[in-house]
């Protein structure tokens, strides 16, 4: 039959293609790192001299101690958080964790370079420190988000290609926002979530598979795969305060960021549970909502958490985003698929796109509403970096620039996603046929795990598996 | 039959009740936060001025850097630790992780308010910082403990109602202990564990279900659910040094607390393994003991860890608590159920109640035994806050007050548990019939996961699940 | 038949032996801690005086704040990282996590003593602080590595006996390297990985089981056990920067160590994926490689991470180690088993032994290549501790001593492993017969978990399990 022929026609053998891409790109990384990347002053063995020059009395003043604990939390979010969040599919756990691992490991190297050229370039060298590591993880976070939309439908090579381009575009967009528009976005509502999600949605739209219902039996979860996914959810949820505060200014800004995020996330859980139950006939809770919509509160304060959003403001934002996200899963995702042909495996539109937009808007409003009274004279200038050429900027101007940042991120996402989607559509990357989607067996050696063999080992009639 | 009628009669549909409770309470939180909660000086944008006023030379002096890493560890313990520890049941993993998530997310908000009114209230506002977040997590920890006793037998609304009351009572009890009795309890042997466990045990006594053997087939574990539970166990075990040191004084007290807890927990593992093997005919180890009793060492030094308990003292306390806890699982839990009608799903009597009492007593003894010689003159005053009205307090007086703290915690737990148990007994909260206990399907949409479908996908005769 | 008789003859009942060993050894720990172990100055209540004497102006100068976050990461690596990494076997998850827990909990106590006598002994007392906790975890890490070689084939008593001896030998070896040879090895390429792996390989050689194919059906993984193992992998991978930087000098050295390790690990993932795909006919990825070889990059920069290896140097080392490790799994492990009779359950030869050697060699080269130009005059002296009797040491001398450190570690591992293997071969420790290897049921109460009961609960003909 047609379907079978199509299936047959697809060559998913990665044997030479994947190694070639991995090895060539790693070689490129080595060369580029060799030419460009060096230790920043705080990681260089000349630190003792630096300390003297800067009049620092203690090693504690090294940025490492301000940011390393948050870095490790962010690191866990990227690799365990995103990785395990996506293991909810019954037969795509290896792909979820494994491909996330692969693309993130490549992405952080490329991001160190790209972001380095834009932000840490000095005398022909990129000087890196712990903040660069955090930013590289952040950048890759946006790729992990986009991965969520195409999960199960793409080959590892496609993911690597997407990573290469998305990291590049991310860095350009980030540069426009942070440097040209002088926008604040420490937790990345715009740069990471809005950009990453709409980029991924555009890609998956371009890669639309009309026959995807052929693998519908594999699109659900099983009991234990839902528990694995909860590991991802909880680590994202717990460490999100670190995510939003990781690159904020030392002192009060990091402190405030963590508190706002903590509050927003707590509120988000309650409204998510409420709407998950309310929208089901029998009032039962849906694991998909608990695994995802509970996190929207972290996304939605990504821009404003380091500002004086206040704890109750955070509760409001968190509550709203939980509601919006859960409604999205129930009503919006089916609509996107049937009407707009956007097949969004993990529902990133609900978890990242809409809450990301909320985050950008809340950030713009919070910035526009800032006053010297609330921030203190010095605090006001410090919070928004109103120094140098920006010392005449007013809160309302800042709010407008923040809003412009949302628009730029959206445009970059749509344009970039369209181009990259087009590239990924080329028939050379080894993606699977529709009926083989969401199936680890295509790209992984999967244990022939008749669990029955294990659990019924006493059964003498059954031959043991090899 | 009778049983069926009873089952039928129970209305477990959460559709309007759960959303109503969640949304109304979240609304209340927003209003109360709006009226009361503001950033403390170290999280406020006025920090630059504060720094000048306090003559602080570095942002590092912000309490955020002293406590945030410990906070994150505690956060993991509450959400992943307690959540996954309770996934050992074969069919209650969603409820264990999910309801723990729900009650803790609500509880931390309410705790920020309750504890704020008692401890951080200034000029009509509650001023919060990272220490408040830790304390809120601590407070919720006591609810997670109580949850362990009623796991699988209660509706999510009952859990939210219990959380509301328990957080309130916890805060009152904590105020009496810390402020009125001037008791030391940084790791919460009394305030968290003794109070939380006896509260939960009283509640489960009141909610006694005579027909619970009807769901006996679901009260056990399966192979992989035991591994999920070990995730919870290990995170509790590993991060317990952070738990006991999180709110200790800066410097030596935090340092000492972590060391004592590390030692106590290490010893506890060995005695638990020893008794687990010894008490089984064939000498086989029991996962229930390993999952739980290994943690008793953390509970049992909760009060004394920040004192000069010394490493060998910690080993002794840890060793004893492991033995007591394991014996409890083997002999005490069956006794409690059959004789006292206390159905303690997770065995919190063994993991939190008895070790909590040990912890309170060890704390009283360690305090009573304190001398200026051991602590140093300044260290002695600092360790016990013997300043102001307390400067005449002697170690033996302190020991007595510590002992009084145990008694107060017990009384509060029994009285509070009885009242709250009575409230939870009302037939309006949607709890399940006895034969439906320990079954996620009542409150959760559970995937129809014939794993067989997954593992035998090659079988052409079997129709694919939808 | 013969095989059955052999099986029958083995007495694996732990009832009195395991408790006896655990309790006696814990008692010994208590006595030895009582005699020797006290708090170091930074954890002692006299800290206020110490601070004054040392002219420290802030509690932040307490070593606790420099190292505690890294300590917790290392702690997670030992208990969750190693524990879950070894859960890949379909029926040995309890043993993997549980025995790792047991041996590590004992090992850290004994290591505090052994390392304390060598490194923290003052006026007849061992003075401990957070750095001692890290070092104890490190020491136990080498035992966890050795455990990987004999996983599934040994009784818990054998593991405890091995731990006792290995910790002792580790400490002697470490003393020779760090104190006598004045070698740098902050991340333990030599002391932890090379020593631990070759020790374990020697032990498993001595314990060679010719009939191990009798339990071959249990030597593989099942789908979900591979996902549990990925939890271990990712936590090891993510926290490895903390591992390699945990005990480096304050400031730039810790900072640099983390960056180098981050880079090396990222590169390692790409080359591992490349070779895993390349070496399989159909180009499919093998979970065994992803779970293990991706970590080789952390091992291979263990010695040099705190040196000026540079980010691109780290990429090179990481790339090579991923290749070597993956090749090892495909070609070397079968060779070791069939020709040298080394049965290496987890493939520690590929993950720790070879990368450990690479790490030692890279360390020697990096040290030998050090110049004052690269490190700065002060940085050079500080990085290699070229003070006191070592102030005349040149980089090339240091390189030679580093190389000598590899040789010493190897000799200690072979000699020690041979002796300890001989001891473990005594027929008194209760190890299982060949056909019962890799089976939790021997030492654990395993739930009779016909998952079928759970998943087919609707089936009325099936009796419920108790």
UniProtKB/TrEMBL annotation, chains A, B, C:
A GO CC annotation given for this chain: apical plasma membrane
Localization terms from the record: Cell membrane
Keyword Transmembrane helix found: yes
Entries under SUPFAM superfamilies matching the protein: Ammonium transporter (SSF111352)
Membrane topology: Multi-pass membrane protein
Domain Ammonium transporter AmtB-like: 61-428
Main location: membrane
Listed GO biological process terms: ammonium homeostasis
Residue stretches spanning the membrane: 20-41, 64-85, 92-113, 133-152, 159-178, 190-208, 220-239, 259-279, 312-332, 403-424
Top-level taxonomic group: Eukaryota
Family under the similarity heading: Belongs to the ammonium transporter (TC 2.A.49) family. Rh subfamily.
Protein's name in the database: RHCG protein
Species annotation: Nesospiza acunhae
């Amino acid at each position: 039959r047609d379907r079978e022929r199509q299936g047959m026609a697809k060559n998913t053998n990665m044997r030479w293609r994947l190694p070639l891409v991995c090895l060539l790109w790693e070689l490129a990384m080595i060369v580029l790192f060799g030419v460009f990347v060096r230790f920043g002053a705080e990681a260089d063995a000349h630190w003792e001299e630096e300390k003297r020059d800067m009049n620092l009395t203690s090693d504690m003043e090294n940025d490492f101690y301000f940011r390393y604990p948050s870095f490790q939390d962010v690191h866990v979010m990227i690799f365990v958080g995103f990785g395990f969040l996506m293991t909810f599919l019954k037969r795509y756990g290896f792909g979820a964790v494994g491909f996330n691992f692969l693309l993130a490991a490549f992405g952080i190297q490329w991001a160190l370079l790209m972001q380095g050229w834009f932000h840490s370039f000095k005398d022909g060298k990129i000087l890196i420190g712990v903040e660069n590591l955090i930013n590289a993880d952040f950048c890759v976070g946006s790729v992990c988000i986009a991965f969520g939309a195409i999960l199960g439908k793409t080959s590892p090579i496609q993911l690597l290609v997407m990573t290469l381009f998305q990291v590049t575009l991310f860095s350009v967009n980030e540069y426009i926002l942070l440097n040209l528009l002088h926008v604040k976005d420490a937790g990345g509502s715009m740069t990471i979530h809005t950009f990453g999600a709409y980029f991924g949605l555009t890609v998956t739209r371009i890669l639309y598979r009309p026959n995807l219902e052929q693998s519908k039996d594999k699109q659900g979860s099983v009991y234990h795969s839902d528990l694995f996914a909860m590991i991802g959810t909880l680590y994202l949820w717990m460490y999100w305060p670190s995510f939003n505060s990781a690159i904020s200014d030392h002192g009060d800004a990091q402190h405030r960021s963590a508190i706002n995020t903590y509050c927003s996330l707590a509120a988000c859980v309650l409204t998510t549970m409420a709407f998950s139950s309310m929208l089901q006939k029998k009032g039962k809770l849906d694991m998909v909502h608990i695994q995802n919509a509970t996190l929207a509160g972290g996304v939605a304060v990504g821009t404003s958490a380091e500002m004086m959003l206040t704890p109750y403001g955070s509760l409001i934002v968190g509550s709203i985003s939980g509601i919006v996200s859960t409604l999205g899963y129930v009503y919006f995702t089916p609509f996107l698929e049937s009407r707009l042909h956007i097949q969004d495996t993990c529902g990133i539109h609900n978890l990242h796109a809409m809450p990301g937009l909320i985050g950008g808007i809340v950030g713009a409003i919070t910035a526009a509403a800032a006053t010297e009274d609330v921030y203190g004279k010095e605090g006001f200038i410090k919070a928004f970096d109103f120094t140098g050429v920006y010392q005449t900027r007013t809160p309302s101007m800042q709010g407008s620039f923040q809003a412009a940042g949302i628009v730029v991120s959206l445009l970059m996402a749509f344009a970039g996603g369209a181009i990259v989607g087009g590239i990924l559509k080329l028939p050379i990357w080894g993606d699977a046929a529709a009926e083989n989607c969401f199936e680890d067996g295509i790209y992984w050696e999967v244990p022939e795990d008749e669990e029955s063999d294990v659990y019924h080992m006493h059964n003498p009639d059954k031959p043991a598996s090899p």
